[in-house]
Amino acid sequence: MNGVNMMINVSSISEYIYCPVKSYIKHTERLDIQTTPMITGKLVHEIRRGFEELIKRNIWSVNEKMEIKDIFESLFEDVPEFVENKIQRYHDAQLIDLETKNKICRDLKGDLELDSWTVAIKTQKIIRKTRKTGADIVNLLFPPLLLEFSIENSELNLRGQLDRIEIVDGVYYPVELKTGLPPVKGVWKSDAIQIAAYAILMEQEFNKEVPVGFVDYMSAGQRRPVLVNTSLRNDLVNVIEDMKSMFKNGEIPELMQSPKKCVKCDYADFCEYRA
After folding, report:
1. How many domains does the chain have?
2. Are residues 115 and 248 in the same domain?
3. DSSP of 31-94
4. Which of 53, 78, 239 is closest to 141 using CA atoms?
5. Tens-digit pLDDT profile for residues 137-183
6. Is 1 a member of any domain?
């Protein structure tokens, strides 16, 4: 593999930071094991996207005479059925087992119900203060965005697919959706560097400065900012260079073994460093 000209995928950067060995095995052995967490994450992303479109559509039926409970019921009306149908298709395709299906369904219904209440409260406030309805409310609550936007740059040898690019007052913001929980403060290092990679790609693509991005930790219902400063950009460059060196020369960085991570790793059977 040519370490100089190889194209690095942004998602691989996160894998590398989590475990260089896993990244090395996956890419040199051409292994792509689809784990339950990976499949679950994809499913949750799909449902979240569909939920937002349902909410935006249902807002059109809201009017100034409705109370909070009425607004919520209007917004949430067809969400449970949508969630059940989407999850059932994954189960029918044998991508998830019954236990996983039931857990995702239970957790997501609860999360989306809470999200619907939040949107209902915001919607009522907008109506009462501005008398706006329909498209005006949608535009206020949901900024213009690009979904699953593929982007690459041959000079940077970098490519990826952003979950979302939100556009507010002409400023472009990369947004990553994560199904896991956030750290106590800030974001995980791998998530921050991933945002930096997308920011740099976006700056080249749109010829606009991207000073900040966001990570949405969906399980916690939190959006956390990532300042794309010089230090973070330098960290990204160093990681990319280390990855290229590893793939080209087979030099895996010194590994701090973690029994908790290793025992759950689907690549453990291929790993000579397994704890």
Report:
1. 2
2. no
3. -----HHHHHHHHHHHHHHHHHHHHHHHGGG--TT--HHHHHHHHHTTHHHHHHHHHHHHHHTT
4. 53
5. 998 898 888 989 999 988 888 999 999 999 998 999 999 999 888 99
6. no
